[in-house]
Amino acid sequence: MLLQSPKAAILPIASVAEPGFRFAEIIDAEALARDLAALAGKAPGDGAPAAVRDRVLALLKERIAIGRKAAETMLFDDGSGLLCAARLSALQDEVIRAVYRFALEHVFVAANLSTGERMSVIAVGGYGRGTLAPGSDIDLLFLLPYKQTVLGEQLVEYLLYLLWDLGFKVGHATRSVEECVRLAGEDFTIRTALLERRLIVGEPQLFAELSARFDKEVVEGTGQEFIAAKLAERDVRHTKSGDTRYLVEPNVKEGKGGLRDLNTLFWIAKYHYRVETSEQLVAAGVFSRREARLFHKAEDFLWAVRCQMHFLTGKAEERLSFDLQPEIAARLGYNAHPGMKDVERFMKHYFLIAKDVGDLTGIFCAALEEEQAKDVPGLKGFVRGLRHRAKKIPGTLDFHIDNNRINVTARDVFQKDPVNLLRIFKLAAALNLEYHPDALKLIRRSLRLVNAELRDNPEANSLFLDVLTDRTDPELHLRRMNEAGVLGRFIPEFGRIVAMMQFNMYHHYTVDEHLLRSIAILSRIERGELLDDHPASSDLVKTLNDRVPLYVALLLHDIAKGRPEDHSVAGARIARTLCPRLGLDERQTDLVVWLVEDHLVMSMTAQQRDLNDRKTILDFADKVQTLERLKLLTILTVCDIRAVGPGVWNGWKGQLIRNLYYETEPVITGGFSQSSRKQRFTQARAHLAERLSDWPEAERDAYIDLHYQNYFLTVPLEEQRRHADFIRKASAGGDPLATMVLTDAFQAITEITILAPDHPRLLSMIAGGCAATGANIADAQIFTMTDGRALDIVTINREFQSDDDERRRAERIGRHIRDLLQGRQHMPDMMAQRKVGRGAKMFAVRPRVFIDNALSNQFTVVEVEGLDRPGLLSDLTGALSDLSLDIRSAHIATYGERAVDVFYVTDLTGMKIVSPSRTERIESRLTSVFDSPEGEISSRGTMPSPQAFGIPAK
To answer: What's the rounded mean pLDDT across residues 253-282?
Structure first.
């Protein structure tokens, strides 16, 4: 028999005993036993010398490879991840049985075992549940009746060493029944592993004894503490993985909405309800049949993804990274649709499954909480029952408060009045309530009531707008509305972007998650919780006459993602239709339409244009036109960038946006501003002087005069003080070249500040020094000082978790830069030694070079867009220097894998580039940077000598 019985490998929700579940095609256990016996010799007792063991090992490797290949082929055929996991588990079972019996019969010749020598080999953990991925650990318990015997020790050692030599990662323990029971009572990890025990081979009575004692002495009466431990463990795991199921590179096993969450439900169900299958969960009233089917579907899909990942990579890879996603999508048979790549369709399916897992977890945990609230005994339970009993909600007979959650009073409240599908969220928001699981279940079962008639209902739309603009926590209630399926039905355009992933390295979340997070940030700004992070937005939001258009615009600004046309234009068209339906008047609708269509304008202007160029401000003001638009766009831009993901927002971007606002405000208002540019420059100098009050007055004044106006208006005061101390120390030491490092674990960035004599190739050399270590420059600021020195600040993406490790890396980069500038190393040699990372090679970004003389009255603006890589900035700036162009300012922006670098340049005489032939040469040369292998451009041109930088050669 290939498996003890189908029931021996019962899966959490589905039995493996169904049509198409084939073990014989994975491994022929009887043939394997015969072939192993033949290797041992004609008669038992001939022994198994080293040569025989090698042949045994070779035979097992061959059969395992054949079995795994068969499992992979069947996964392609039937697409069932659960069946694949069960087949791999069955293959592992048969290997362990074969080796165990071979060792007993042919190695140690121990056919008649004494009572003390009998043992059970038990699968525990995930393996005990009868599911394995190709790279899964094999968790084994060698169960003894008493203490270990010589034969038992030899058997365990033989089996383990053979499994290790076969390439398996084996977790194991050798314990008696007594030890198992005692340790399980003390340790929840051991208890959980034993909960999923399954006999593979050995003594059945010993296994039965463990099962009986475990149930009676460990499980019985301890359900509540086990549930609390597992849920606390889950919360810690979620926090470590980002506490969202919508990360665009999710962990299929450990991430929120992944397999471990389903495992947690299974552990709790098995422990608390004593169930093994979905049918039993339905019978217990925890899940409906639909929800049980959803559980099975989610588990089957996640196992398919996980098994395909392991097969593809040849290792236990659990993170569904960008480079794996296209290949897994192809393996699972996804195709591209207009506006969506095949990989984006696959990832949307993944996130919808993760959402289902979250919904099921919420239903399950809420049901447990309700049950616990009802079951508390004695006076404590009576008092708790009084506190949590159902309370009426004034003004409605359809809903009441049940255990501090809003619940329905009857099963037909939505059928009787479909508007209640919106009203329940409005009431929950107004009363600051969570949602009862029974209410959520009924909402999901009533989604067909969200039809065209309800969408056009004025009261329903008014209720929705109330939830969206709730002053306490609109995100919570919109999120519950989205999870229940109402939001996507009520606004079908939103339903199209639910769980939609954008296949790029910039956006960290799905589109709907990004929109909800942006609303959460706006709500926090409005409540004054982000005053330190966003002082300008926190002040501006208090001056708004109408906050409704801002909330609606945030909800809609990316709603048209995944369409063939520009999402801003398509989104504006959606807003034009939707806003009147929601009850907005013509003025509000026009505002929302404009905000959606131009929601990227401020971000792009702030990060990619020179804000010290008057033409930039005038062009932006002409686009915005009114002060109301400027205020709304400023706040929307902050919320949008903050909601992209961790590390995307930083203080420098905030400063740029504030500067753009303050420069534009007087242009729009006809000269009136709370703070003119000249005033802010004067104030910034005064503030720095105050911060340097511990310096001698003459030295302080001389230092402040080193910086031009744009430095004071761009750099935050705290950084100005750091720079002052840095420059003072470097000047005192007489070193013409100095570097400073600042790590930021929260933002996941590291800042390197370089002080050096100015030179046209300085930025290129700095970028080359970063590229030589594989560092990716996310941002760069360039400041020229009045004494001819340059202060360049580059921000690189963080590589190490430890600050000490990251600081050492940054200091190594600083040494590379110094070596380049001092002539001790040459760029081609340094680039040849660089560490090449994963990069963004799985992405495609068409190179684009745009040269414009209309964006500035003084400079030619060269905008370069293309696939980012280490060394790109060095190559671009080097190419510009080779073209005899003087870079007057550079604006470096990185959006994941896409780099958008903007350079304000002149020729060497200080004039714009107006010759068409020269413009064509610039375009051709910069485009060739993307066509050439990494580092090739860096080696071209004449490298300046150290003396060119004013640095002595060493």
So the answer is: 83
